[in-house]
Amino acid sequence: MNVAEILHKPILPAMISSLSDLTPEIIAQLISKSEKWHAERRTCIGGSDANRIMKGEMHQLWLEKTGRVEPKNLDDILAVVMGIITEPFNRFWFEKTTGLVVEPPCRIVHPDYPFIAANLDGICQGFVWEAKQTGEWVKDEQVLQWYYPQVQHQIMCKKDTDKGIMSVFFGNRRHQTFTIDSDIPYQQQLLDREMELWRCIETDTPPEGFTPTVEVSFSDMREVDMSESNSWASLAHAWKDNKKPAKEFANAADELKALVPSDACLAYGHGVKVSRSKSGSLTIKEM
Fold first, then answer.
1. Could you give the count of Cα atoms lying within 13 Å of 227 in the half-sphere of its Cβ?
2. Domains and their CATH numbers in the chain
3. Cα(60)–Cα(211) distance, rounded to whole angstroms?
4. Torsion, Cα of 277, 50, 147, 280 (10° steps)
5. Residue pLDDT, tens place only, 74-90
C-alpha cells in the first residue's frame, strides 16, 4: 500500500487488514513534504494561509512566499503529525456515525482568482469537509475560532456551496461535527487581505499596515505597563464590565441547548430558537 492509497482510503475496514503496511517509513513519507509541494505552496494562497492571515501573520507569510525565509518545519510537531495520520480514521468515523459519505481529498482553485486555492480533506453532500484533531479539553468555540478562516476560505474557493463541515476529534474521548455557514462579509474581508498579500508578493514589496511577527524566546520577553494607553484603558474597562454578562450568556446558551428534546430539529420561544443540523449539532440564534 502506498502513501496515496492510505491518504485516500474512504473507509477504515479496508485499511485494517493492511495496517502492517503503515510502517515508520510510510508515516515519514506522509508527514514530510516534497520540494514540489513546497514550490506549489509558494504559487498560491491556501486554507492554512488564511488562518495565518487573519492572525496577523501577513509579513511572515510574505517572507515565506517570496523565498526570503523557509517555512517552519512542522514534521516534529506532534499535533500536526497526529492530524495527518488520523485523517483517514476521522473520515471513517464521520461516515460511521453520520451515515454520510465523504468524497476523497481534492484540490480546488478559486474560479476568479487562480492564486487562491484549497486542498480539501474531502467533500460531503456538496459541502467542503475538513478533518481536525485537537486536545481533549479544548472548547468547541476555540476550535471554531481557530479554523473559521480556513473553512471560509475553502467555501469561497468552491463557490457552489454555502456550508462547510468540520469533523473534529477531541483527544481520544469525543468526536464532534460542526456545520459552518458561508459568511459573505467575512469572506470579503478575507479576500481583500489575500489579494493584498498576493499584490505584495507579485510586486516584491512588504505588506504595509501589518506588524511583522517576531519570534522571541520567553526568557527574553519583558513586562509592559499599559497604564498610559487610552485604547488599553477603554478595552480593559469593557472587558471587566462584560465578563460576568458574557459568562451568563454562555451558560444560558448551554442550558437552552440542553432543554431541546432529543427528537426536535427546532425549538423556539421568547425570541430565541435552537436548530439542530443533520449531524446533530445545535445552533442558537435570536429570532
1. 2
2. 3-203 (3.90.320.10), 242-287 (no CATH)
3. 9
4. 10
5. 677 777 777 777 888 89
